[in-house]
Amino acid sequence: MFNYNKYLRNDKLPHIWCTGCGCGIVLKSLLRAIERSKIPQDEIAVVSGIGCSSRTPGYLDFNTLHTTHGRAIAFATGLKLAKQKLKVIVVTGDGDATAIGGNHFIHAARRNLDLTVVIYNNYIYGMTGGQVSPTTPAGKRGSTAPYGNVEPAFDISQLAIAAGAPFVARSTCYHAVQLDKYIHKGIIKKGFSVIEVLSPCPTYYARPNRLGNVVDMMEWYKNNSVQIGVARNKSVQEMEGKITIGILHDTERPEFCEVYRELSESIKKQLVK
Amino acid sequence: MTNEVETKLITGNEACAEAALVAGMRFFAGYPITPSTEIAECLARRLPKVGGTFVQMEDEIASMAAIIGASLAGAKSMTATSGPGFSLMQENIGYASMAEIPCVVVNVQRGGPSTGLPTLPAQGDVMQSRWGTHGDHPIIVVTPSTVRETYDWTIKAFNLAERFRVPVVVLLDEIVAHISEKIVYPKDAEIEIVDRKITERDPSSYLPYENTDSDIPPFAEFGIGYRYHVTGLCHDETGFPTNDPKKVDKLTRRLNRKIERYRNEIIFYKESFLEEAEICVVVYGSAARSAYRAVSDARKLGYKVGILHLFVLWPFPHEALSKIAKRIKFFVVPEMNLGQMAHEISCATKQEVVKVNRVDGGLITPVEILEKIKSVQL
């Protein structure tokens, strides 16, 4: 069995996450995917913003950068461009990536810089105590939506695809084995890859919405997730309230570092002439 | 770069971009904004030719974040903006102060507040450049008044950023940025380039925020085996977050002390005709251009007046002003704001100062300064 200790800063444990939180499941999946990628530990940088998910890098023994709220992808952009041999992985949450960091997210997808972005989507702002986020489903409760959320939600994966990300996959904390595969594919993909993970927040999402404990939430993921291959043959009505999981999008587009390097080389050649 | 004396006619923005390359800057991230855009345009042309990277980000918040990321990878990095963009950068400027990431931020000042006067000069960001981000934080602010000074002070800004591991703000204004002047480039041998001090420790004993005698922790770039943690949260010597009051106090005091204790090595000003002067014009940035003419005219008329020209605004030269105040009867402070530096000068000199202010988008003229000199009742 894979020994996580190799990649953990054990002196920083125990972690700060609540009982039943999905962050630890994603963390372990991320480490299994990194192990599978065989990329040297020194050449991996993990960058995060602010929130529960963004505390992940502190526990990981890589080059780790915990930035300002929403800006992880922008920091990662500079890091990657200035040292392209680094494999830069961004870990972020639904609020961090799609509310305050929404602009950076869509433009990084458009730019297609070689970054791997793992988004822990728990439908809520956990760190600040359960306020609604851009992915809280309409009608669900949060501390800033005491009568139910009056706004519709973002579909993060569809947003990423529309903005140009060449690799987009979605899984849940129940489907951890699949998650390993998607994160691994995202890491080895040359380009901007997005892996959205539905992650349970028993404390601030399940409790006010009477969704039970984490076991109930896992059951819900299990019973309501539909593989993309199956989902494609279902009607909109049949997919109502369901989650589509799997590799939702996988295509090839010119990657920014390579495009810039080619440009730079061609200009230098012209100078020599 | 050359060893021959080379002369050119260029703008301040061009001088800034060229100087940054000479200083070793190889990563620029920015967002278009008048009157700073030519810096980005120049570097978009130049950086790919020298193996550097130019990237136009989606906004100024991202630009500031990107240059911090690049600096952590070991690159000297810069962004350039103007008032509204400078406001957006403040949060991550604080991050650079806190995480001790060297970087240079050029702010070509225009009229404000808000979108203000996009194409016209002002000096209204003097206080924002010092106190724009929240919390007690270290920062250095320099301000040139000519094209050649812009060249020199951009290089110096990088040197200061590297030496002290702080963000350094180069405050230009629309006049210095857009004016075309003859510049005689310094020879290579005359240019001093400073690089950040790299740790001599091996990865197992490296403390990224070690309390050293110098108060400036040696640096290790990402990706070469050190695998440490960087955060904007209060942290201890290991770089990991802490709430321990003793450790937080120690960090906050060291961060600020590392600039304060070297203030005499950072501060730079020029005195002219102050030996026998009774009136001192304290000036900085493009307002200095008019001040030199006004003082020259006033001296011809028999007024005992001199100039104190500030090139470093923060840390502020309180000691120098307090010393000069012993022999000066009146201080005249021309600036294109409503008296932001006048207040600081008044504090340092314990004197009321005579203010000469314009906030209409125009340069303070020599005549306006001369009239104030004449109006002083000695």
Could you explain how this protein is built, in words?
The complex is a heterodimer of chains A (273) and B (378). Chain A has a single domain (20-272), classed as Rossmann fold, CATH 3.40.50.970. Chain A is built from 10 helices and 10 strands. Chain A has helices spanning 23-37, 72-82, 94-100, 102-111, 156-163, 176-188, 202-206, 214-224, 228-231, 256-272, and strands spanning 44-48, 63-66, 87-93, 116-121, 124-125, 131-132, 167-172, 193-198, 225-227, 243-250. In chain A, helix 4 (102-111) crosses helix 5 (156-163). The mean pLDDT of chain A is 97. Chain B folds into 2 domains: 7-190, Rossmann fold (3-Layer(aba) Sandwich); 270-375, Rossmann fold (3-Layer(aba) Sandwich). Chain B contains 13 helices and 16 strands. In chain B, strands 2, 3, 4, 5, 6, 7, 8 and 14 form an 8-stranded mixed beta sheet that branches. A 5-stranded mixed beta sheet of chain B has the order 11-13-12-15-16, sandwiched between helices. In chain B, helix 12 (340-349) links the parallel strand 15 (330-335) and strand 16 (353-357). Chain B is globular and about 70 Å long. The interface between A and B is large, with 38 and 44 residues.
The greatest interface between two protein chains, and residues involved on each side, is: A-B, 38 and 44 residues
By CATH, the superfamily of the largest domain in chain B comes out as Thiamin diphosphate (ThDP)-binding fold, Pyr/PP domains
Order of helices and strands of chain A: HEEHEHHEEEHEHEHHEHEH
Q: Might you state the CATH topology name of chain A?
A: Rossmann fold
